[in-house]
Design brief:
The chain has helices spanning about 5, 30-45, 50-55, 75-90, 100-110, 150-160, 175-190, 190-205, 210-215, and strands at about 65-70, 95-100, 120, 135-140, 165-170, 225-230, 235-240. Helix 7 (about 175-190) runs antiparallel to helix 8 (about 190-205). It is of the alpha/beta class. It has nine helices and seven strands, in the order αααβαβαββαβαααββ. It has one domain (about 15-240): 3-Layer(aba) Sandwich (Rossmann fold). The protein has a seven-stranded mixed β-sheet, covered by helices on one side. Strand 4, helix 6 and strand 5 form a beta-alpha-beta unit.
């Protein structure tokens, strides 16, 4: 029988109360293979589409090169997608991925062609000091790993630091999406971490009212922010400056 925390989708569950296997102690091989499974999930479920569509709206041609930083970059798949997008449009970019997990930079480097020239860093993005100004900060499937107070701190840091804009691509809390993901994961036989963590992630995810509350707490002007649903299962927050 599922606990009430697992079955009640009316409010967000704290990551501390409902942990994911990926956030715990594991081998490098399990972490890397989990990230590779997540890349397949993102491709199949159109997970990169919201971020790339948001980038399309920005007047990036006037910035040369555009420094884009991915916070919680994991295996680096989002930045690889952005590198391809920028190349097709003739936009010069400098790409940096930052992740707290020391396994992430290693896994990203292993999966990334050297000619893309993406920089991978280990550490807290809010304490890092990249050589170039951060024009754009993006994140994908990272916010639901954070407690509410950590999200507020991230929003405040992006507001104070980022030059052009920021975009958070994450999940929408939904029992239907959670059940569908769990069913797909079993059928497709993704990595065991993904099979376990996917439904948990949806319980730790957001609805629009959550983001309105968090943005207000961070004192972000809501008239400059978009909160958009993307199917299947995404809820994304973007800000232009």
């Amino acid at each position: 029988m599922r606990s009430s925390a697992e079955s009640d989708f009316s409010r967000r569950v704290s990551p501390r109360k409902l942990p994911e296997l990926m956030d715990g102690n594991c081998s490098y091989e399990d972490f890397r293979d989990c990230l590779r499974s997540l890349e397949k999930v993102n491709r199949w479920l159109l997970g990169y589409r919201p971020t790339l569509a948001w980038l399309e709206r920005l007047p990036l041609e006037r910035l040369d090169p555009v420094h884009i930083v991915d916070v919680g970059s994991g295996g680096g798949d989002l930045l690889r997608q952005i590198a391809g997008w920028a190349k097709r449009r003739g936009i010069a970019v400098r790409l940096t991925g930052i992740d707290l997990n020391p396994y992430a930079a290693r896994a990203a480097a292993e999966s990334t062609p050297k000619e893309l020239r993406i920089t991978w860093m280990t550490g807290d993005a809010m304490e890092s000091r990249p050589e170039q100004p951060m024009y754009i900060v993006v994140s994908s499937l990272m916010a639901h790993h954070l407690e509410d107070e950590e999200i507020v701190a991230l929003l405040r840091w992006m507001e104070a630091t980022v030059k052009a804009g920021w975009f958070i691509n994450d999940l929408e809390r939904s029992e239907w999406s959670s059940r569908m993901f769990g069913w797909m994961a079993k059928v497709v036989k993704w990595h065991r971490f993904v099979r376990h963590d996917g439904p948990v992630s949806f319980r730790r995810a957001f609805r629009k009212e959550d983001w309105i509350r968090l943005l207000a707490a961070a004192e972000v002007p809501q008239e400059a922010v978009t909160v958009e649903r993307w199917r299947p299962g995404r809820l994304c927050v973007g800000r232009w400056k």
